[in-house]
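Example 3.2
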Amino acid sequence: DLHSFPTRRSSDLDRIVEKYSLGALSIRCFPEFKQNDVPTPCLAVSVMNGKGIPASCEGDVLSGVSMYVLSKLSGCPATILDVFSYDSQQDTMNLFHCGSAADDLAEPGSLSFCTHCKPGNHRPGVTVEFKVHCGKISFLKFDMLEEQCRLFFCTGESVKPENKLRGTQATIQTEKPVKPLLEKMIDYGVS
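Structure, written as tokens:
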């Protein structure tokens, strides 16, 4: 259970959350952490997510807002995952991110601690790597276009991933055909 896993960085984040009465936070780890030779904060971000404080990385504030809303609506931790491939025959999409998700989302037996999956890009820190457990999931993403707030939402089912990747990974069976869904995401600029 990572919720009580002590790290200096997560203790620092706890103090910031308490001092400013934050319900969520976003850490801009790129490019600043690389430029200042600071290890990646993935483990600390994972710990915060596990404590129920939605924490996004890469300075992605809108993903942090999305995580906050989704976690409040679902009562479960939310995370950031990027689409890296899809299978239109199976209507699945494969998702991945560095390893900052709450361990509550892990498929039993798949959790491990590793150094960041892209060590050449920066000073690697510890990541929490796993396959997301199987079951119903929801996607929610707030985005902005020309000062207009937009919302993307869909549902699906997390199934056993076929790929073995570093970081947090999931394979999602979409409720609608995956290719038009992804095309719609691209057309609307959902990032």
